[in-house]
Amino acid sequence: MSWLDLSLRKQGAGVASGEIDPGELLDACLERIEERNGELNAIVATFPEESKRMLAEAPAGPLRGVPVVIKDEWPLPWRAERFGAAQGLVEFRSGESAPYRALRDAGAVIAGVANMHELGASSTGNVSVYGPARNPWDSSRCAGGSSSGPGSAVAGGLVAGAVGADGLGSVRYPAGYCGLTGLKPTYGRSAFEGHHIANSETIVSGPLCLDAADCRLLASVLFGEELRAHEPSGLRIGVVREPLWSNSQPGVEAACDSALRALRDEVGGELLELELPELALWTISAVLVAQAEQSHLLTPATLNSLDPELSPIARGLLKLRAILPATATARARLVRTKARRELARRFEELDLLAWPTLPAVAPPLDRPLVELPAGTATADQANVIHGAFANLTGVPSISVPVGLSEGLPVGLQLTGPWGSDALLLDAAEALERATEREFVRLRAPVALSNPATSSASPPGMPG
After folding, report:
1. To pair with 262 at 20 to 30 A between CA atoms, which of 99, 361, 402, 440?
2. Is 170 a catalytic residue?
């Protein structure tokens, strides 16, 4: 076993105590990327000199010397983001984005840039100018989108933590497909400045990690404040059976139901069934609000000069966005106001909402369709109703691994009121205790392969 296989927090503690040499840890990380990335396509750029410079200048923060990766949605001082695409609607520029500064100030070392779905426009991750990122559990399957590379990199053991971005579920979907913990923070709470959509109404930066404690550490860095842990008790958890549970694959529903009951018993809580009859309308409205971002740039001149290297789907989507009536977006924002009021009312009686992160396990890259009780659907059609409402309303949401179905990971999604990010992490840790950490200990086959012999792999190292 390598030091790289330790949790994010153990790597940080080992560097701080002197037990781990951070230079050797970085070298091991870069070697691991070289060894495994050919199979995963999770990382699209490494820059050893810049990474070593970050290490040499790293302050004594909570992640000093710990290698992480960052999604291709965030610029770095030495590299512009590319958004997984041959072309964007603005010229991408290098610079000090807020997530970069947060990582730098915590002492972290950015070891690479992670792949993402083209223009952030899917929950699958199967299209990118770099080629698709692959799921470490089965390289023929989707890793989830749009933060596909961060999910693949962490599940594949390249790093213990990654920074993604979540605009309509884009941190939670890869977490669900890859067996990770992924937090979509409360809107506006995590580091965001420097994103090319400067005034996004839906996008937030968020962590993808092996477990909730690592997610808490990385989220605290992105938030610029410590998210303290507490023991939750008596949680009132709302369960929306129709259609979020009933239209999920049987193996997904069973794993999530078992985990939810274990959480209830662990915290002495109760499960309260409820209906959200306007959830479908909230989903449509979330998509409309997200699609309206940057719409002022969709001029005829721009649309007539789209790079042919953009996929046909991306070109078509941009042209569709250009003809969306402004009245539809305006009405979507009215729906958002009503949705926020409805959630505020519900959270007076509930602490959390719970349903499967995704209704099906990861589909094939070359045919991202899922078979559900209601019939065959595209993965995007099926997934968006599970995740988009949190981006519409701004509430925080977390995906927690709860088992396997067909040999692939299943995630349970927990959602809380605005500002309850720490409570979500508390609940995720309680769920881990209730299941004796069985599911956060699971590792994808590629992550169990023997890394190259390294000085960062001392004999007898503790797990």
Report:
1. 361
2. yes
User: Rounded to whole angstroms, how far apart are CA atoms 26 and 48?
Assistant: 9
Is residue 459 a part of any domain in this protein?
no
* In a domain? residue 286: yes
Catalytic residue of the set 170, 190, 248, 405: 170
- pTM (predicted TM-score): 0.96
Spot the catalytic one: 97, 123, 146, 205: 146
Q: Could you tell me the end-to-end alpha-carbon distance of the chain, in angstroms, rounded to an integer? A: 8
The catalytically annotated residue of 7, 10, 51, 71 is: 71
Q: Cα separation of 399 and 234, whole Å?
A: 21
What is the span of the domain harbouring residue 322?
3-448
Beta-ladder partners of 79: 76
Q: Count CB-CB contacts under 10 A for residue 109.
A: 27
What is the count of structural domains for the chain?
Answer: 1
Instruction: Dump pLDDT digits (tens) for 376-427.
Output: 999 999 999 999 999 999 999 999 999 999 999 999 999 999 999 999 999 9
- Give percent above pLDDT 90 in the chain: 95
Per the structure block, which two tokens stand in for 456? 């960062």
**Cβ neighbours around 282 below 10 Å, total:** 24
Longest Cα separation, the chain? 65
The domain that holds 205 is classified in CATH as 3.90.1300.10
Chunked in runs of 10, what are the mean pLDDT values of the chain (463 residues)? 95 98 98 98 98 98 98 98 95 96 98 98 98 98 98 98 98 98 98 96 98 98 98 98 97 98 98 97 98 92 93 94 93 98 98 98 98 98 98 98 98 98 98 98 89 42 33
Token match 């199979």: residue?
39
**146 preceded by cis ω (within 30°)?**
yes
148 is annotated as an active-site residue: no
Asked, for residue 166, whether it belongs to a domain, the answer is: yes
User: pLDDT digits over 269-315, tens only?
Assistant: 999 999 999 999 999 999 999 999 998 899 999 999 999 999 999 99
Structure tokens at 330: 């305006």
Q: How far apart are CA 413 and CA 93, in angstroms?
A: 35
- Residue 228 in any domain: the answer is yes
Strand 369-372 to 236-239 pairing: unpaired
